[in-house]
């Protein structure tokens, strides 16, 4: 009789989908909505106390705040993700270094941006569309907002760390407190003390101060990590992984900065030759975007809440629950957007009137802006939910295409093109059309990938034979019976110049199982449509997900394309590894141990050797001097380590990431082979015990 208690399955796989969405999505929706209200309070009071020129000023400064948010999210989300990963591996000290790196990084980038904004405020305002009439208001508002950048950075970024520590309610308290203070002091400074936009900016900073203080007070309440002097002394060790994990958050926000800058400048240019003038169109679109931000908050909160439900059930092979969840969030999001669409079309004037009614021309354009720019929001909900879905089921390329398509592929080009035919209203129609085109792109991607997504178990799950135990005996001397070997997949990571490949081939021959190294590249090239030469170059030279490499593509189309191709290559390579692991095999490198994480039948090996032995081997095999060989070894090892740790923060060559690490300089190749066979035998015994239980 099995003496062990049967573990209960995670509620994500058993609870009703509706109840799970209420549990996971509602708190996220509330947080996002509160944050959106926080961001639009200034515009409401400025519109009524200063006028549309003041609101135009906040729209000019808004891209600077979004840029600061991009950096804060990169550092904060990256630190939160790194913290979660390290805690999952029981590496509390590493998790603490991630928190320290996040905190120091957030404060540092806040002060850097404060200095840059104070020095370059006027040219930045001009770049983001400030006219001569709006510029004085923008400078008054912007200089004060710039002083609060360190506070803003802490508020925006540290919330991810608090959530990762398991205290979302604390984060909610900070947001609500900051929002409440802003709401109290905005009318006081604007209407009582007649401080205009300066008063609104000051009220914002006071709210941020309260939020930041509450966030920093949480440092003494951290439940999962302990911050010590040693942790802060070594914070830089975690910084590369933190930045790498947070880069996608930076990219999505940075794209918004570019979009706003383009829209503002086009509106000013074409507005100046229209009956509305240069200032009204830019201000009206800014107000429309702030109104829509509340709807976006609902969608993002829903998508974030659904992500763990989708991911867990997809990984568990419960595809009916995946489809049900996806259907539910689509129905909810499209339904909510349809209700909003009806309200915007029927009652646009009262809505825009909340932000002030300075003139008939301003109200007229604001109404048209709200009705036209947001005309496509019912179908516009689909791309956001689709991007979240693709990300949840392990399709990062498709998720990236969907999430960036609206802004990069459609919105910006249409914003530049349509005003040439439609005048200033062309910018408004660009918003509507980009929603529709992004929706069509989603339909195409789903038509192409939907059926294959739900046959993934044939590819990713270990075969039944691999998980079953044959019952054959063990020899007890490091020899694996031939009938047992097919139950095990052996992955071998290795330093450059060590005999990892030699050991792997020998093990495969002795166990009579397939050996994969370059073959994985060949199949990945065929599946992805990329050349093997390109994939090999990526494998050894392009793995550095460091800050510079991730930021550079944002200004360089070719680099951005290369980044996408790299992800395509990674995805194709992972799929080949998963297919190979359906049966017994030896796989060399390619981050196979991570791709197969969670598969019970995998033996993870790391091979290295003394540096002098590696230098000698590379020097002789590649006809290099010892100095050249050493340089090549250090370079390739560096790239392998970066690639290995880029996506989830794992450390290449670290002993606790493997079942066994072997120094062949101490054991010899034959000794390594013998040790690996013992380890395989131990894995088979473990699988047998688990199978019997």
Question: What would you note in describing this structure?
Answer:
By secondary structure, the protein is mainly alpha-helical. It folds into three domains: 221 residues, no CATH class; 200 residues, no CATH class; 229 residues, P-loop containing nucleotide triphosphate hydrolases (Rossmann fold), CATH 3.40.50.300. Helix content is 74%, strand content 3%. It has 28 helices and five strands. A five-stranded parallel β-sheet has the order 2-3-1-4-5. Helix 11 packs antiparallel against helix 14.
What secondary-structure arrangement, pairings included, does this model have?
Elements: H1 17-49, H2 52-88, H3 92-127, H4 135-147, H5 149-164, H6 168-192, H7 196-217, H8 229-233, H9 239-271, H10 279-315, H11 319-346, H12 348-353, H13 360-373, H14 377-392, H15 396-417, H16 419-422, H17 426-453, H18 457-460, H19 464-467, E1 489-494, H20 500-511, E2 515-516, H21 518-528, H22 532-541, H23 547-551, H24 557-580, E3 585-588, H25 592-595, E4 602-608, H26 611-622, H27 626-646, E5 660-663, H28 664-692
Helix pairs in contact: 1-2, 1-6, 1-7, 1-10, 2-3, 2-4, 2-5, 2-9, 2-10, 3-4, 3-5, 3-9, 4-7, 5-6, 5-7, 6-7, 9-10, 9-15, 10-11, 10-13, 10-14, 11-14, 13-17, 14-15, 14-17, 15-17, 20-28, 21-24, 26-27
User: What is the CATH C level class of the largest domain, in words?
Assistant: Alpha Beta
Can you tell me the residue ranges where pLDDT is under 50 for at least 5 consecutive residues?
1-8, 456-486, 525-565, 689-693
Strand tally, please?
5
> Count of DSSP helices?
28
- Share in β-strands: under 5%
Overall residue-averaged pLDDT value: 80
The neighbouring-strand order within the major sheet is 2-3-1-4-5
For the sheet with most strands, the description reads:
5 strands, parallel
Intertermini distance: 9 Å
Tell me the name of the CATH homologous superfamily of the largest domain: P-loop containing nucleotide triphosphate hydrolases
Q: Rough shape? A: elongated
Indicate the radius of gyration in whole angstroms.
28 Å
Percent helix: over 70%
Secondary-structure arrangement, i.e. CATH architecture of the largest domain: 3-Layer(aba) Sandwich
CATH topology tier name of the largest domain: Rossmann fold
How many discrete structural domains?
3
- Structural class by SSE content: mainly alpha
């Amino acid at each position: 009789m099995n003496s062990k208690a049967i573990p209960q399955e995670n509620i994500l796989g058993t609870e009703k989908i509706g109840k799970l969405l209420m549990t996971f999505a509602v708190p996220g929706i509330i947080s996002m909505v509160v944050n959106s209200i926080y961001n639009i309070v200034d515009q409401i009071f400025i519109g009524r106390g200063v006028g549309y020129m003041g609101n135009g000023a906040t729209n000019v400064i808004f891209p600077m705040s979004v840029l600061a948010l991009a950096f804060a999210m990169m550092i904060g989300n990256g630190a939160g993700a790194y913290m979660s990963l390290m805690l999952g591996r029981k590496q509390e000290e590493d998790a603490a270094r991630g928190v320290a790196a996040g905190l120091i990084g957030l404060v540092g980038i806040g002060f850097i941006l404060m200095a840059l904004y104070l020095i370059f405020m006027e040219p930045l305002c001009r770049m983001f569309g400030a006219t001569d009439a709006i510029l004085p208001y923008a400078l008054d508002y912007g200089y004060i907002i710039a002083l609060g950048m360190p506070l803003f950075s802490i508020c925006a970024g540290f919330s991810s760390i608090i959530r990762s520590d398991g205290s979302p309610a604390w984060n909610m308290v900070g947001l609500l407190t900051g929002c409440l203070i802003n709401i109290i002091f905005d009318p006081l400074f604007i209407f009582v003390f007649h401080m205009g936009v300066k008063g609104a900016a000051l009220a914002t900073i006071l709210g941020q101060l309260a939020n930041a203080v509450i966030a920093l007070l949480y440092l003494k309440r951290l439940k999962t990590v302990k911050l010590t002097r040693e942790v802060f002394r070594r914070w830089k060790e975690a910084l590369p992984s933190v930045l790498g994990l947070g880069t996608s958050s930076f990219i999505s926000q940075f794209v918004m900065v570019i979009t706003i800058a383009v829209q503002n400048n086009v509106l000013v240019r074409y507005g100046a030759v229209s009956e509305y003038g240069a200032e009204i169109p830019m201000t009206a679109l800014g107000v429309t975007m702030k109104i829509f931000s509340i709807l976006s908050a609902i969608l993002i909160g829903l998508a974030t809440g659904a992500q763990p439900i989708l991911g867990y059930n997809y990984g568990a092979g419960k595809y009916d629950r995946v489809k049900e969840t996806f259907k539910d969030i689509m129905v909810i999001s499209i339904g909510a957007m349809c209700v909003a669409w009806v309200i915007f079309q029927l009652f646009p004037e009262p809505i825009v009137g909340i932000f002030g009614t300075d003139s008939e021309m301003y109200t007229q354009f604001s109404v048209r802006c709200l009705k036209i720019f947001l005309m496509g929001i019912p179908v516009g909900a689909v791309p956001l939910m689709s991007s979240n879905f693709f990300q949840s089921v392990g399709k990062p390329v498709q998720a990236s295409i969907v999430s960036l398509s609206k802004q990069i592929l459609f919105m910006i080009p249409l914003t530049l093109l349509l005003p040439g035919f439609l005048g200033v209203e062309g910018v408004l129609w660009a918003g509507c059309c980009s929603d529709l085109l992004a929706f069509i792109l989603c339909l195409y991607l789903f038509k192409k990938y939907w059926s294959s997504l739900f046959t993934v178990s044939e590819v990713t799950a270990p075969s039944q034979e691999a998980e079953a135990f044959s019952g054959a005996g063990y020899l007890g001397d490091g020899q694996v019976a031939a009938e047992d070997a097919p139950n095990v997949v052996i992955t071998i990571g290795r330093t450059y110049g060590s005999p990892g490949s030699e050991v792997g081939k020998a093990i495969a021959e002795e166990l009579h199982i397939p050996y994969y190294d370059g073959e994985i590249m060949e199949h990945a090239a065929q599946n992805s449509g990329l050349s093997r030469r390109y994939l090999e170059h990526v494998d050894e030279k392009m793995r550095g997900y460091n800050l510079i490499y991730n930021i550079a593509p944002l200004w360089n189309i070719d680099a951005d394309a290369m980044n996408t191709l790299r992800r395509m290559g990674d995805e194709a390579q992972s799929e080949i590894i998963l297919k190979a692991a359906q049966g017994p095999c030896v796989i060399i490198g390619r981050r196979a141990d991570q791709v197969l994480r969670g598969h019970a039948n995998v033996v993870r090996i790391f091979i290295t050797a003394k540096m002098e032995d590696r230098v000698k081997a590379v020097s002789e095999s590649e006809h290099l001097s010892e100095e050249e060989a050493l340089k090549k070894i250090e370079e390739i090892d560096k790239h392998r380590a970066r690639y290995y740790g880029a996506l989830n923060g794992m450390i290449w060559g670290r002993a606790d990431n493997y079942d066994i690490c072997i120094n062949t300089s101490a054991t010899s190749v034959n000794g390594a082979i013998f040790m690996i066979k013992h380890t395989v035998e131990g894995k088979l015994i473990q699988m047998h015990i688990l199978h019997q239980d």
